[in-house]
Design brief:
Chain lengths: 257, 302
């Protein structure tokens, strides 16, 4: 184990959708700067857990949470935590690419616009942020002459990369990805995975995936969940080669899923 | 492959019944077209014989409406066109911000019981008969305006515009709310996950995304206001007058028809002129509704 403190820790996390308990006593440490994947059959709570980390599941009024989640040592359920700042630190990529129905350029600077006063944003600064973010995700050469096209008209793969790019100007610590490749073809999936490798180190990446092969290829650590509980959390190769829990073994062998 | 078993032939009655019902349903389907077209034709035919006798420029621009003059009959509807347009415009000045604001609130800022209550209340506002609005204009607002505002008479442009605004708001709210509801939820999540506040999400994402639907909501509200008759007949003061201030009495195209048609001899020039006014109204509302429809189509294409 590394000596640096973990990036995300949860202690005794429980979550209910109205009366239905979706997470039971989840305690986990997610390490800094690596890719951690969350796997498990449908309905096991992996997406729910992911959506706790930026508290985006609270937009439905019927969600109750108990327990503790610390990100970079700070409990995100403390009353003095600003959701706006939290979501700046913890970015999220969704299952369907969801660029906003505005231009590519405006998608990338959207975060800057909502977090800054209009008068603080200089044109050169925005231009620079767009070039930097799009370069980082490998879209700049393709899109530099199409910055003012509507983002919803791009190919799906480009849309998903753009959804990652628009997080970067906010300098997040954590990037949450909820099955980011499930709408993409093989090429698109490969491109997003390569992008994840390029981003790891600077960002802590947590990815939910339905695809065990993807978890195996693309993550450093792997968390297996079942029925709202965390079953096993180890280095990915250990989890796949030598699962400790029989339920994990059965899942990765494909006996259920 | 064996052919499917042949079914018993059906009785002639059931075959004919099938055809009759299909015909009936077909008729229901196209009835709207038939009705619109035949109403237009009827109004046009009643008004048409007067068309060659009219000098159109004074008719449209002159405020001189003397349809029953013994010596010099003049059919100037200029003041009424301005009356209709000004009362509709002023009504929209109140109704559009109010209606769109309410639509945003109902759709984005409240949930559960409050939302349901508001929606029912707004529908009830739409269900108030226009004659009742007219009462309110004539008795309540008339008095209030005379007491609190520098107006010599309470029945005026302002009074009628307020009533029309209240009558168009429910339409703007319910159609505007539908337009906002049609914006994919993924846009809201994207904006929220980037740290946008609810209001930032509304004005940076939802309003632009729902633009066409909201435009349609406004145009249908305009259509409602232009066509309204009873309330404006009672609240405008019904004076043929080009308004120069908010508190001048006016007269609208609709109210003129309602007030005068019963007193004209069928087939007389005055009677025909009123039908031509109807034709004008028909054209205005047709254009407004067409624009609204085009705006909604724009939404679907997205």
């Amino acid at each position: 184990m590394t000596a640096t403190p973990p990036c995300i820790t949860t202690r005794g996390l429980n979550l209910w959708y109205a009366k239905f308990q979706a997470l039971l006593d989840v305690t986990v440490d997610i390490q800094h700067g690596i890719i951690t994947s969350l796997i498990g059959p449908s309905g096991c709570g992996k997406t729910t857990l992911l959506r706790c980390f930026n508290r985006v599941n609270e937009r439905y009024g019927y969600v109750t949470t108990t327990g503790e989640i610390k990100i970079l040592g700070k409990n995100i359920y403390d009353p003095d935590v600003s959701l706006i700042e939290l979501r700046k630190t913890v970015g999220m990529v969704f299952q369907r690419p969801n660029p906003l129905p505005i231009s590519v350029y405006e998608n990338v600077v959207f975060g800057l616009r909502v977090h800054n006063e209009r008068s603080d944003l200089k044109r050169e600064m925005l231009d620079e942020a767009v070039e930097k973010a799009l370069t980082e995700v490998g879209l700049w050469t393709d899109l530099k002459d199409r910055l003012h096209d509507k983002a919803t008209h791009l190919q799906l793969e480009q849309q998903q990369k753009l959804c990652i790019a628009r997080l970067l100007p906010l300098k997040p610590e954590v990037i949450l990805m909820d099955e980011p490749c499930s709408a993409l073809d093989v090429e698109g999936t490969r491109a997003i995975e390569e992008l994840m490798f390029a981003l790891k180190g600077r960002y802590t990446i947590v990815i939910v995936t339905h695809n065990m092969a993807q978890a195996r290829r693309a993550s450093d650590e792997c968390i297996f969940m079942l029925m709202g509980r965390l079953i096993e959390h180890r280095r990915t190769e250990d989890l796949f080669l030598n699962p400790q829990n029989p339920k994990t073994a059965e899942y990765i062998e494909g006996r259920y899923g | 492959m064996n052919p499917p078993p042949v079914r018993q032939a059906r009785s002639a009655l059931s075959l004919w019944g099938e055809r009759a019902i299909e015909l009936l349903i077909r008729l229901c389907g196209i009835s709207a077209v038939i009705f619109v077209f035949s109403i237009f034709l009827f109004v046009f035919l009643e008004g048409a014989p007067l068309i060659p006798d009219l000098n159109w420029i004074p008719v449209i621009f002159s405020p001189e409406w003397y349809p029953t003059s013994r010596s010099n009959v003049r059919y100037g509807v200029g003041a009424m066109i301005i009356g209709t347009l000004s009362v509709t415009g002023l009504a929209m000045l109140f109704a559009v911000p109010f209606g769109l604001g309410a639509a945003v609130f109902v759709s984005e800022f409240c949930g559960g019981k409050l939302k349901e209550t508001l929606k029912v209340a707004i529908e009830m506002l739409a269900a108030i008969p226009s004659i009742v609005w007219g009462f309110i204009g004539l008795s309540v607002m008339n008095h209030l305006i005379q007491t609190w505002l520098p107006a010599p008479v309470g029945l005026n442009l302002f009074n009628a515009a307020l009533l029309l605004a209240l009558m168009s708001v429910p339409i703007i709210v319910s159609i505007g709310e539908d337009a906002l509801k049609a914006v994919p939820d993924s846009y809201r999540e994207a904006a929220l996950a980037l740290g946008a506040t609810r209001w930032q999400t509304v004005y940076r994402v939802l309003l632009p995304a729902a633009r066409n639907g909201l435009l349609a909501a406004v145009l249908l509200g305009v259509g409602r206001a232009i066509g309204e008759t009873m309330a404006v007949l009672m609240a405008t003061g019904h004076a043929v007058n080009i308004p120069t201030s908010l508190f001048d009495p006016i007269r609208t195209l609709t109210a003129t028809i309602a007030a005068e048609l019963g007193e004209t001899a069928v087939g007389s020039p005055h009677y025909r002129m009123l039908f031509l006014i109807g034709l004008m109204l028909f054209s205005i509302t047709f254009v407004v509704n067409l624009l609204a429809d085009l705006a909604v189509r724009g939404v679907r294409r997205q």
